[in-house]
Amino acid sequence: MSGFRRGVRLGIDVGRARVGVARCDPDGMLAVPVETVQRNDSAIDRIAEIAQDFDLLEFVVGLPVNLQGADTASTTDAREFAAALQSRTGTLVRLVDERLSTVTAHAALRSSGRSQKNSRSIVDQIAAVILLQQAIDTEKSTGNPPGDTIPLDEESPR
User: In order of start, what are the domains of the chain with their CATH numbers?
Assistant: First the structure.
């Protein structure tokens, strides 16, 4: 685990209606669900509030590229959300490829016996857990931080 940077990370799964939030412990042992935030004008403020409860290293925001790795309307939306979140909090955001995290989350919930209708409130949190766990595992196996960063604005609050 030589290259792993210690610290709490929040995983963010950005959707059009809801935003899933997950977190990991400082050693990156386990990602766990935190909250599903309604996607509205106060979503970024709510996530910033959640972040205040932790000594946060960074946010890990899922980038929903298509299966060929190309950007989509959802990718652009996630990038804009991530930039706004970083600007609001002054905390570094990493954008990580989250292809299939929501599909994987739905499959996991189905296999645990939950219907899609009953899972709607937590599927975004589970997708955030999956993308965060993948990011942690990638960093642990390669020694490199996952994904790409958005340059921090020099004017950002700390």
Answer: 8-149 (3.30.420.140)
